[in-house]
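Ticket #4471: structure output looks truncated?

Reporter: J.K.
Steps to reproduce: submitted the chain below (95 residues) through the standard prediction queue, then opened the result file.
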Amino acid sequence: MHPDEVDNLNHKIPEHMRDAMRLWIERGVPGGSFLNSVLCNDLFGAFGRADDINRAALGDYVSFLYWDAPSGCWGSPGKVKDWAEMGGLQGMGAA
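Returned output as attached by the reporter:
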């Protein structure tokens, strides 16, 4: 990840979720059910699976994904599946 993207991850994503988001973006390593729902653009699923901290930060997740994360790593179940199979940025030779 680019240093600016890491900085934004550290400011927008709750601390206990940063490693999971970083592993997802860099290597395509799936996180838990909450993160998967966020990445698949499933608001109802994400809200229902979130702890209190993540529920309050849902807007920050959206902002981070929209402005800072690679567009191929989120947005639909198909895109999430493809990202995992590719191995994230590392699989693209970009990490």
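Triage note (M.O.): checked the attachment and the full token line is present. Helices lie at 3-12, 18-27, 33-39, 43-49, 52-56, 58-67, 77-86, 88-92.
Status: closed, working as intended.
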